[in-house]
Amino acid sequence: MPRLVIVSNRVSVPDAAGKGTAGGLAVALREAFQAYEGLWFGWSGKVAAHPTSQPRMVDKGDVQYALMDLTSLDRQEYYNGFANRALWPTMHYRVGLSDFSRTDYAGYLRVNRTFATALAKLICPSDLVWVHDYHLIPLAAELRPLGLTNLIGYFHHIPWPAPEVFGTLPGSTDLLRAIMDFNLVGVQTERDADNLRRALMQELGAVAEKVDVLDVGGKGTCVKSFPIGIDASDFQEVAARPRSNRIVSQTIVGLGSRKLIIGVDRLDYSKGIPQRMEAYERFLVNNPDQRGHVTYLQIAPTSRSEVPEYDTLSRVVNETLGRINGSLGEPGWVPIQYVTSTYPRSLLAALYRLARVALVTPMRDGMNLVAKEYVAAQDPLDPGVLILSKFAGAAQQLTGALIVNPNDKFEVAEAIREALRMGHEERVARWRTMIGPLRDRDVSWWAAAFLKELAAQ
Ligand code: F6P
Known about the structure:
The protein has helices at residues 24-32, 72-91, 102-120, 139-143, 163-166, 172-179, 190-204, 232-240, 246-255, 273-286, 308-328, 345-354, 369-377, 409-421, 424-440, 443-455; strands spanning 4-10, 38-47, 56-60, 63-70, 128-132, 152-155, 184-187, 207-208, 213-216, 219-225, 259-264, 294-299, 336-339, 357-360, 385-389, 402-404. By secondary structure, the chain is an alpha/beta fold.
């Protein structure tokens, strides 16, 4: 069995009790290590005064962690700058928000080179290397000149946009060239795979050897979709546990006979939070009889707060929230409850189970694991209704959801009405179409399918 080397921007090192962070990527990647001995390499999350050339090594059971610090300039140019101000908005079709700077791009390439130089010293010839996320697109192209001939895969967790959109980003052709140094590139949906293949053909003149394999000057790369899953059985089990948590009890008491609508998202403009609040406002305006009978709880942990667009979003959300609660609220009833704390997975599972409706309406999303977690958390005898954006990768799989266009607040408002009125039989029937595939294509399936395909290249 080859060793597995995972590389990602963020690394989740388990604490003394053996627990790691609860984020989707962290859970998914820890799952990949169930079957392999391995090494996990990436940013420590820390900023140091001087660049580090050697990672700090931490041993935890079968997995070794190799952690690199960044300087504050690195963090600014590589993470806040090129990755999150240029690549992220472009990948999410927000060309108008994309702010390209040559200095940031140079910083992005510099950090990728520093990581590659440090990583190359830790890799053995038989290792399988699996790189994650848009921060590290040039990594294989930096590793190859150092003599690495290993199989190297890349998984792109966010959308890959249409070539016309990706092509607007300066440096995009170089990034496509860098993609060709991976043996396998995994994306979330068939649409993403098609977008990337078309870009490689149009920009680099790649030729399709087989349906999924593209060739540029004798170099072949396989581009395929592997929709990421969740640990569905475990999430079902956690959600079904008796609720002894103070916040859950408080929510139950606060709700009384009201129905709960829930939204859980990182505070990111791709998630469509202000648009969703306005759709809910439209629902309350169109259905005055519903006022006082529903509560919408939006949980939105603050994210990337050093990036100016996120600060602007936070202001817009607060203004929208204040306006709606001020104009439609009544003594004893707040239409929208809004919290920016990060909650543990078990608490979220319990809140999902309490909610009659989940609003998962991103403007664009690679997959969206909240949608999957909401479905898994439901009581099979009395499930709630998922309202899901057609622009989330999850919409390709969760066809039992009410699928909406998040740009149309009238359509979303109508879906809220339909979800709240939906009869028991239809709720159960819709839920049943989703839970089976969620369990079959869970996170273990995802990791195993990618790694099997990588090993076969
Ligand atoms: O969805 C892409 C992603 O990079 C995830 O892998 C990560 O968990 C999430 O965004 C959070 O982003 P950040 O690391 O910038 O907080």
